[in-house]
Amino acid sequence: MRDASLTLELWRGSVSLAEFFMKDQISRVESEALSLIDGVTDMRGLEDARVSILGKKGALTKVMSGMRDVPKEERPAIGQLVNKTRAAIEKALQEKEALLQRQADVAAVADVDVTIPSRALFKGGMHPLSIVRYEAVSILRRMGFSIEEGPEIEDEFHCFDALNTPKDHPARNEKDSFYFDSGKLLRPHTSSVQIRSMEHLTPPVRIIAPGAAYRRDEIDATHLSAFSQLEGLYVDRDVRVSDLKGTLEYLLKELFGPGTEVRFRPHFFPFTEPSFELDVKLCAVGQKPRWIEIAGCGMVDPAVFEAVDMSRGSSMYSGLTGFAFGIGLERLAMIKWGIKDIRSLIENDVRFLAQFQ
Ligand code: DAH
Fold first, then answer.
1. In a 10 Å sphere around its CB, with 0-12 CB exposed, 13-18 middle and 19+ buried, how is residue 104 labelled?
2. The pLDDT of residue 322 is above 70
3. What confidence score (pLDDT) does residue 220 get?
4. pLDDT at 105 over 60
5. Going along 77-171, which residue ranges are E strands?
6. Mean pLDDT, residues 245-271
7. 197 CB less than 6 Å from ligand 1?
8. Angle at the Cα of 23 (from 22 to 26), degrees rounded to 5?
C-alpha cells in the first residue's frame, strides 16, 4: 500500500520524484518481504525467501539499482532507509528461523513416551572363580583360619627347599616352572605361603592363602598355565589326620551341599607325610557321575618344620604337628556349576559369564 504521508510530501514538493519512487518501492518491498516471511512454514521456504529478497537478484537489491536516478543530496537519506529496511527484514528472517527450529525440536520428541520404563542396564557380576573363592574363604574364616599372602615371584627356598622338595624333583625343572634370569620363579603352587607364614607367625598357626600359581602346563580342558589355588595350614599340638579330613569334608559339604561325597586317596607330596589327593564326586545334571580331583593335602612333614626353624634360627616348630592342603579353585568352580572346560573360566565370554549373576 502506498504511504499517504509520502504522497503528501511529493505533492508539497519536499521530495523529488526519484526519491518518491525509491521510498515508495522500498516500503513496498519491505511489506511484501515481511508478509512473505510470515507465510513461510519450513527452513527451505525460509532460505528461498531470503534469496528472493536479499539475494543478488533479490527484490531489495533490484530497488537499489534505482539509486542512479536519485539526486546526489538525497542519496544518504535513501541509503539509511535501505539499511533500516534490510535490518528489519533480517530480523524477521532470524525470528522466523528460531521459531521454525523450536517447532522442529518439539516435533522431534512428539512421539517419545517418557512413561515407558527404561531398558534394563547390563549389570556386572562376580566372576565364577571369585564366587567360589569368596565362599570357600568365608567358610574357612568361620572355622578360625585367617588370610595370609606371599609373593607370586618367589625364590626356590620358599617354593621347594623349605618344602622338603629335593633338587631333582621334576617341579624344579625349567621345563615345569617359569624361571627368571635372577633364579627366582613364578610360584608353581601357593604352598610357598606356608613357609612365609610360619616364618613370621608364632604357633598355633591356622591360615589360608588364596592366590595364583603358574606352571608350564599345556593348556587343555582341565589345565591352565596360570591358575588359582587355596592353600591351608594348621599347626598346633596333636593335630591329626581326622582334623584334616573333618575340616576338608566340612568345607566341601558347606560349598556343594550336605550330600557331597568326598574321597581321600593316598598320594605323595614331599612336604606332607602321609599325603592324600582329595576327590569330590561330581553329579552334574545330564552328566555321568565322576570323581574329580580337587586338592592335595596331608600331615606336615617334620622336615618342613625343621627348615622353618632353621630359617628363623629358633626351635619354635619342632615337635608340633599340622596339616596342610592346596585346593584348585578352578576345579571347585567346575564342580559347583558342572563346567566342562576350564578354559571358559579365562576366556571372558560374556555369554558364559552372564550366567553367574
Ligand atoms: N602344592 C600342591 C600342588 O600344587 C598341592 C598340595 C599338596 C598342597 C599337599 C598342600 C599339601 O598344602 O599338603 O599340587
1. exposed
2. yes
3. 92
4. yes
5. 146-147, 153-154
6. 96
7. no
8. 85
User: Residue 179 carries which DSSP code?
Assistant: B
- For 165-217, what is each residue's pLDDT tens digit? 988 888 788 788 999 999 999 999 999 999 999 999 999 999 999 999 999 98
Q: How far is the CA of 348 from the centre of ligand 1 (A)?
A: 28
For residues 329 and 210, the answer to whether their CB atoms sit within 8 Å is yes
Cα–ligand 1 centroid distance for 352 (angstroms): 30
- Residues 201 and 183: their CA atoms lie apart, in Å, by 27
Q: What is the predicted pLDDT for the residue at 3?
A: 65
Q: Whose Cα sits closest to atom 14 in ligand 1? A: 296
Dist CA 135 CA 189 (whole Å): 21
Measured CA to CA, the distance from residue 131 to residue 226 in angstroms comes to 18
Q: How far apart are the first and last CA of the chain?
A: 78
User: SS3 of 119, please?
Assistant: coil
Run of H or E including 251: helix 241-256
User: Residues 181-202, buried b or exposed e (16+ Cβ, 10 A)?
Assistant: eeebbbbbbbbbbbbbbbeebe
* Reported pTM: 0.69
pLDDT of residue 287: 77
Asked if 294 and 270 touch (Cβ cutoff 8 Å), the reply is no
The identity of residue 48, as a single letter, is D
